[in-house]
Amino acid sequence: MKVIAKNITKKYDDFFALNNISFELPENKIIGLIGHNGSGKTTILEIMAGLKKSDMGSLSYTQNRKFKADLGVVLQDNEFYSDAKVGELLSLFASFYPQNVDILQLEKKTKIDKFRNEFYRNLSGGMKQRVNIAIALVNNPSFLILDEPTTGLDPLARRDLWKLINSVTEKTTTVISSHYMDEVEKNCDYLIMLKNGSIVLKGYTKDIVNSNSMSLDELYIQINESEEESK
Ligand SMILES: Nc1ncnc2c1ncn2[C@@H]1O[C@H](COP(=O)(O)OP(=O)(O)OP(=O)(O)O)[C@@H](O)[C@H]1O
């Protein structure tokens, strides 16, 4: 799915969480959404997921199915799954959709099959995220939104989660917010950087890194530090 956002603005009272932002998410690529705390990442992800309304602007999608049937979302806090077992959660979410994938195959593909009889609350952070992603994939979406999926995970769990994300998103436009620039540089084809609700950088990751002759981590610091220094 291709996603096009035009002139999106979102205000909370007088505060502009997003200020007239426009972008196009390239189809079937992994898009990294980066920016400082409070820059507007969750707000735009929630608007794209249809969970929040923008005050101005428009979103358009190229899709074959109804939008919600074609969407998978993992938000930052899914602790409300706590009292269910992994297999039960997958079956429950699959039952919401007329078309869905083979659950046993999905469990194998996301390597959660050994945990299907465990309670969600007893899983490690990394395993919970694998289950969250599996749940988001039950309807075989062509647009996947993941809000900071690797935050709080140890380096091995983070590496394994990116392996999983890369292995299940070939035919999916995937947008992922992250504070880990090394991960974004390595795994995301395209990136969008927000600063105070505006886009300050967007484009293919390789082009950005090559044309600036520095790592994304260094570029991030340069862009975000300059304002502090000039004060
Ligand atoms: N419901 C709300 N009411 C008022 N202000 C809000 C609300 N939700 C978000 N904000 C503000 O909007 C701004 C953007 O928030 P958002 O959660 O989108 O940022 P973020 O980039 O996802 O941050 P983080 O990296 O910390 O998750 C922040 O200043 C936040 O305090």
Automatic annotation (TrEMBL):
Occurrences of domain ABC transporter (ranges): 3-221
Whether Coiled coil counts among this entry's keywords is no
Please tell me whether the keyword Nucleotide-binding is annotated for this protein.
Answer: yes
The protein's GO terms of the molecular function aspect are: ATP binding; ATP hydrolysis activity
Q: Name one Pfam family in it.
A: ABC_tran
Keyword annotations: ATP-binding, Nucleotide-binding, Transport
Q: Which InterPro entries match?
A: AAA+_ATPase, ABC_transporter-like_ATP-bd, ABC_transporter-like_CS, ABC_Transporter_VariousFunc, P-loop_NTPase
Q: Which domain of life is it from?
A: Bacteria
Report what the protein is called. ABC transporter ATP-binding protein
Instruction: Name the species this protein comes from.
Output: Bombilactobacillus apium
